[in-house]
Amino acid sequence: MATRLTELLGIRYPIIQGGMAWISDAGLAAAVSNAGGAGIISTGGRTTEYTEQEIRRCRTLTDKPFGVNVMLMAPNKEEIVEVICREKPAFVTLGAGNPVPYFDKLHEAGVKVIPVVPNLRLAKRVEAKGADAIVVEGMEAGGHIGTLCTLPLMTQVIPEMHIPVIMAGGFADGRGLAAALLMGAAGVQMGTRFLVAQECPAHPNMKQKLLEATDTDSIVTGLTIGGAVRGLRNLFAEHFVELELAGETDKDTLLKMATGTNRLAAVDGDVEHGMMQAGQSLTPLTAIEPAAVIIERIIRQARETLDKAATIKI
Prior knowledge:
By secondary structure, the protein is of the alpha/beta class. The protein is built from 13 helices and eleven strands. It has two domains: 4-200 and 286-310, Aldolase class I (TIM Barrel), CATH 3.20.20.70; 204-266, no CATH class. The strands form two sheets. Strands 1-9-8-6-5-4-3-2 form an eight-stranded parallel sheet. The chain has a three-stranded antiparallel sheet with strand order 7-11-10, covered by helices on one side. The mean pLDDT is 96.
């Protein structure tokens, strides 16, 4: 399945795995890359030592291209970028901040640059500054989200871009991949779909909650304080939203409440008091399977969907 994304990264299928903090490690990244996609190691909340170690570990697990995600809100982002430039993964995705100051340094190191953007204005800006491709993420995604949905973003961003566009937010099966390709995307990014991969290190308690989730089980916290985060409903998320809507708790207190809750759920397995970051497409998560099985099913379904689309008479 050849697209501008597969050509850019030298991968078999136009699927990249989302960089999920505390979850996207070398094991998961290598499994996705070995299956024909492009895996990503997340550095959110991590040290430079961890970053170096995981990049090197990933190279022992795969000879296929993989990337690293940099959260630009991190206090050690400069040091993380230095490690990436030294270790030279195939590409880097950058989000939650201004990625432009890092373009030249990463390009000089031979690392392809793929910023994550939530709207057309920022998409045009990073393209003009030399991005190799972009991830355009709709608010259906898990974790930190913007304000626009995926379909309007595809409608408005893709026709304006000259570089490959990777769509994200709500993609979990081959029909979604086919839809994105038909609208002109070069591929999709999936995060939540790989939370139930066998190789994913998310705590078993969190994986079980994902398998049990229905289509209405996602919730957004932080809307009133300018830091919206999507995850699964639980005691923490519902209490947080209750305090937000009451309007009696200040922003700093709310932020302090949320600090560390992602790790609490993903690593420690506290699925009631931690924030289980996940997107809206939940019902396709029905079993814990190898990443290769997940990707092969997605590609098979995408091909079937595209074949059916070709038979529609107009």
